[in-house]
């Protein structure tokens, strides 16, 4: 039986914009109110996804969400026709309107936490959508995310879908961005690392002082319980509060793993040596590569600016590993020098492939944010909704769809334009036909 680690990239939605919504995410704040290009953003994402499919990896796409989210605006007490609601919200509560217009579901690393069937007690692939309660504009995602995941992984013989965690700060859950799975082979039982920013119910435990810790230990433990993981296959690691306070708002900004490789910055974690020992003990005696990047080579601010660790580390069909990096890594001399040195070291990583995902990077999302990893065996891959899997036909179809429905440029003040809502709904209705998703959106109910 063959095993794969599939990447499911988030399709960037028609309202992609820079609204400065993410306190603690440096890029989001720095680029607030910049002009965005929804069309460029979507095509950059499709290009990266197609490139991985062409490299022989299993690659899928997850549909965007309905934005502006009129259902949430109505829950906030706005009433009248859709146009009247957009108008009122723009006048009376522009911050709420912006929070209901973000295309942030494109960053599917935050869509859910996924545990492969080799790790779970019932031998199914488990999904728990992230409740994303730390940010208003993300907290409105999980229900539709769950609908889209169930329409994509729609065979209950192989896939188990959970409800997102309770919507309270004690259960702050940001999904796979704070979850890394190490294994010798994708199909073998692995060790799942849950990285958290604070222990919410212990007021004396260390926590960041300047920026929020979006993931709690309580949330990570709850997901591990829901996914029926053994203690022997689970490690909880606290993110170093000092790096959160420098803009590391998710672990995937400072560390990334693939199979038997953990690539991380020396300042990433608290109690690093003890945790690496725990990982080694639980991983067993097969080879394990800890690639620690010293501050002397790459400072935290360089890591946060370039997204060196928000890269994808993939295993090519040849068995060699490659890094999928944003072009921003080429533009940072310290990081570029480090990557050129890395591929000469004695690790499985042998090449770096660069992609322009600047539309996403300007909002704090790099290549790794844009994808949700789902390790599956060939039967599970065959059970996935095949119309979501990337190939030449879907690539062409989705590019034509983007060309037809997406604007070349968008300003935050355009979000209240009733025409944009019509364009967005028309596009998504058509998309559910293309990807055979069924009625996953509120406006289709
Ligand atoms: N995994 C990367 C997530 C980036 C995302 N940025 C945003 O939501 C920015 C939205 C804006 O500011 O328009 C976040 O911080 O959750």
Automatic annotation (TrEMBL):
Keywords (A to Z) from UniProt: Arginine metabolism, Hydrolase
Keyword Cell membrane in annotation: no
Binding of substrate, residues: 19-28, 110, 137-138, 214, 252, 363
Known catalytic reactions: N(2)-succinyl-L-arginine + 2 H2O + 2 H(+) = N(2)-succinyl-L-ornithine + 2 NH4(+) + CO2
Subunit-level organization: Homodimer.
Organism of provenance: Shewanella fidelis
Purpose: Catalyzes the hydrolysis of N(2)-succinylarginine into N(2)-succinylornithine, ammonia and CO(2).
Hydrolase keyword on record: yes
Protein name: N-succinylarginine dihydrolase
HAMAP family hit by this protein: AstB
Similarity annotation: Belongs to the succinylarginine dihydrolase family.
EC id: 3.5.3.23
Pfam families xref list: AstB
Domain of life: Bacteria
A GO biological process held by the record: L-arginine catabolic process to L-glutamate
């Amino acid at each position: 039986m063959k095993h794969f680690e599939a990447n499911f990239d988030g399709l960037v939605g028609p309202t992609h914009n820079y609204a400065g919504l993410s306190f603690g995410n440096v890029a989001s704040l720095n680029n607030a109110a910049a002009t965005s290009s929804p069309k460029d953003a979507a095509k950059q994402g499709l290009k990266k996804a197609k490139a991985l499919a062409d490299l022989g990896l299993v690659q899928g796409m997850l549909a965007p969400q309905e934005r502006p989210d009129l259902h949430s605006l109505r829950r906030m007490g706005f009433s009248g026709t859709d146009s009247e609601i957009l108008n009122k919200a723009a006048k009376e509560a522009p911050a709420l309107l912006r929070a209901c217009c973000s295309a942030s579901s494109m960053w599917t690393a935050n869509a859910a936490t996924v545990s492969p069937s080799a790790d779970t007690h019932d031998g199914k692939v488990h999904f728990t959508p992230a409740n994303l309660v730390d940010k208003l504009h993300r907290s409105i995602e999980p229900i539709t995310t769950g609908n889209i995941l169930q329409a994509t992984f729609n065979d209950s013989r192989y896939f188990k879908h959970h409800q997102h965690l309770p919507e309270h700060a004690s259960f702050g859950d940001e999904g796979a961005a704070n979850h890394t799975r190490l294994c010798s082979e994708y199909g073998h039982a692995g060790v799942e690392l849950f990285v958290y920013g604070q222990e919410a119910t212990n007021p004396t435990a260390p926590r960041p002082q300047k920026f929020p810790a979006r993931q709690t230990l309580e949330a990570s433990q709850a997901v591990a319980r829901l996914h029926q993981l053994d203690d022997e296959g689970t490690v909880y690691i606290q993110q170093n509060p000092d790096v959160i306070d420098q803009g590391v708002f998710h672990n995937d900004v400072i560390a990334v793993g693939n199979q038997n490789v953990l690539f991380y910055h020396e300042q990433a974690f608290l109690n690093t040596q003890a945790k690496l020992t725990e990982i080694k003990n639980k991983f067993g005696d097969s080879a394990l590569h800890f690639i620690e990047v010293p501050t002397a080579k790459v400072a935290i601010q360089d890591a946060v600016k370039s997204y060196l660790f928000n890269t994808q580390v993939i295993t090519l069909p040849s068995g060699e590993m490659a890094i999928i990096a944003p072009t921003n890594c080429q533009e940072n001399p310290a990081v570029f020098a480090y990557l050129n040195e890395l591929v000469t070291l004695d690790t499985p990583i042998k090449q770096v492939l660069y992609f322009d995902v600047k539309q996403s990077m300007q909002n704090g999302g790099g290549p790794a944010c844009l994808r949700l990893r789902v390790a599956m065996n060939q039967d599970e891959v065959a059970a996935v909704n095949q119309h979501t899997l990337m190939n030449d036909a879907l690539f062409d179809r989705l590019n034509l769809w983007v060309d037809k429905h997406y604007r070349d440029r968008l300003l935050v003040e355009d979000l209240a334009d009733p025409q944009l809502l019509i364009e967005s709904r028309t596009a998504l209705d058509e998309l559910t036909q293309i990807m055979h998703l069924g009625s996953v959106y509120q406006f289709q109910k």
